[in-house]
Amino acid sequence: MGAERENMLAFIKEHLNDNTHELLLKAAKYPNIDMPQAVDQIVCRKLMKDKLPDWYENGRVIFPSRVSAEQCSSEKTALYKQRLIDVNEQVLCDLTGGMGVDSFYFSKVLDKVIYIERFENYCACATENFKELGALNIDVYNGNSSALFPTLGNLDVFYIDPARRGEGNKRLFAIEDCEPNVLELKDELLKQAGKVIIKLSPMVDITHSLSKLPEATAVHVVSVKNECKELLIVLERGVSFDKPVEVTCVNFTTEGEEQSFVFTPDSEQQASVIYAQKMHRYLYEPNASVMKAGAFKSIAQQLEVEKLQVSSHLYTSDSLLPDFPGRVFEIEEVIDFSGKTAKKLSALIPKANIAVRNFPLDVNELRKKTKIKEGGDVYLFATTLQNDEKVILRCRKV
After folding, report:
1. Same structural domain, 28 and 97
2. Among 293, 326, 365, 100, CA closest to 226
3. ∠ CA(130), CA(133), CA(135), 5° rounding?
4. Residue 25 in domain
5. Is the residue at 250 inside a domain?
6. Partner of 263 for a Cys bridge, out of 75, 102, 112, 298, CB 3.0 to 4.6 A?
């Protein structure tokens, strides 16, 4: 196994930038190399360059499958999950180890991590990778996590990332439809550990999930480059059921900045909103995490911005808020939308970035109607105001 691994790693290093289709066609030239496997490793490594730069730079990490590389946590999200560990917590059990990315990053802030995975080849890869990466405080177990975890004794934290696919590869978005079923396990998990961290699909309904998890104390909605990546729910033993759940919305921008916004579902229900009677100087568009969490009223109240309309989810103010959790634009013109104005727009604005919020046309339909090409420095927001007037806001990014 050792010589075979070394040959494979050397081949991957030499051919990392080659065309993978051509490599498959040339397989006969390399009789000592499992070419389909080598090509899979090359594809996975390329995926890792931006997603897991530390693993990519190591050069000796191997991947159990393409699916594992596609579905694993990114370095950004794995590092964020370290924040969910308290200083007095020392031992964590990852019940759904997978490629081992989360186990690896948890191991950097804990004394010990227990990695459990039912697929033997994933365990074999994880064992080798942890050695290559210098993570020597991770114990690897191959087996069914539901059967294994009761044998481990008391722990501080359980981490679980249940599978979100059913029969026929059907995608599942309800917490009770995932495997393993957290709702069936949570009571036993909380007897054995004081905390359970659950990673769910960003498509999961937060309100529905919280209704099933009265032990929840916190929700974290994590986005990278304004794409919602993970929904994390933290359960804690002995929590008072009337304690408000804190929701943290985080987005790591393209520029590497971190945007954050915190609220509670109760405060969202009770928040009062001022609806804009006119457009002010600046336009505010919340990021993907705020939108997913549904903090539509809380953000207006906390940051003192006016909402354009109940369903538009855009905001305006005369004050510049550089730390707004989303994008900020300066409004240059408010254009009443009609069939006549649509036909004339391309003469004035031949090229623009277009977004649609609560508007009867989607982006493609609007481009077709206006004949405005994509790109440039102009941003157009097609939306509906409080008086139900349909407008296009011509803006420049701040």
Report:
1. no
2. 326
3. 55
4. yes
5. no
6. 298
> Tokens representing 387?
């008086």
Q: What SS3 class is residue 314?
A: coil
pLDDT band at 389 (very low <50, low <70, confident <90, very high): very high
Can you give the pTM of this predicted structure? Answer: 0.93
> Residue 383 domain-assigned?
yes
The whole domain housing 182 covers 75-243
199 token code pair: 């990673």
Same domain, 81 and 182: yes
What is the phi/psi pair of residue 7, to 5°?
A: -60, -40
Pairing of strands 315-317, 282-286: antiparallel
Is residue 284 within 8 A of residue 313, CB to CB? The reply is no
**Dihedral of alpha carbons 393, 312, 288, 69, sign:** negative
- Range name among 75-89, 92-106, 152-166, 291-305 with the lowest pLDDT average: 152-166
* Whether residue 349 is found in the same domain as residue 387: yes
User: Do 139 and 222 share a domain, yes or no?
Assistant: yes
CA pair distance 238, 253, nearest whole angstrom: 36
Residue 230 φ/ψ region, left for φ over 0, alpha for ψ in the -120 to 50 degree band, beta for the rest: beta
C-alpha to C-alpha distance for 182 and 180, rounded to whole angstroms:
6
Beta strand 91-94 with 157-160 is parallel
Residues 326 and 389 in one domain: yes
CATH number, domain with residue 308? 3.30.2130
Q: Rounded CA gap, 292 and 54, in Å?
A: 29
Give the whole-angstrom CA distance, residue 315 versus residue 331. 12
Q: How many Å from the N-terminal Cα to the C-terminal Cα in the chain?
A: 56
Q: Strand ranges (DSSP E) for the chain?
A: 91-94, 112-117, 138-142, 157-160, 195-200, 216-224, 227-236, 246-252, 258-263, 282-286, 306-307, 315-317, 326-336, 351-357, 373-384, 390-397
Could you tell me if residue 254 is inside a domain? no
